Amino acid sequence: MPSPATHLRAPLLWLLLPLMAGLTAAKLWPPPVFGLLPLILAAGGLAFAAGWRALQDGRFSRLV
C-alpha cells in the first residue's frame, strides 16, 4: 500500500518552488524607484476585489 505522504509531496513542491523563486528574485533585484507601497496597495486591492467577487452570487458562481 502506498504511503499517504506521497500524495502531499507534489502539491507542496508546487507551492515551494514559486516561493523560492520569489525569494531569489528579491535578493537579486532592488525594489522599484517609486517604493513598495503602491505595489502593496495594488495587491491588497486586487485581493479584496477577488474575495468580494468570490462571495457574490452571479453568473460565474455556478462554475465552481
Overview of the structural elements:
With 64 residues, the protein is an all-alpha fold. It has one domain (5-62). It contains two helices and no strands. It has helices spanning 5-28, 37-55. It is flat, with a radius of gyration of 18 Å.
Question: Which descriptors would you attach to this protein?
Answer:
64 residues, mainly alpha, 2 helices, 67% helix
Largest sheet: none
Query: Quick check: average pLDDT?
Result: 81
Count every beta strand, where a strand is a DSSP E run of 2 or more residues.
Answer: 0
Approximate helicity band: 55-70%
What is the first-to-last residue Cα distance?
33 Å
Query: What is the subunit arrangement here?
Result: single chain
- Which stretches are low in confidence, meaning pLDDT under 50 for 5 or more residues running? none
Structural class by secondary-structure content: mainly alpha
User: Measured on Cα atoms, how large is the radius of gyration?
Assistant: 18 Å
Strand content: under 5%
- The tally of domains stands at 1
The number of helical segments is: 2
Outline the fold blueprint.
Layout: H1 5-28, H2 37-55
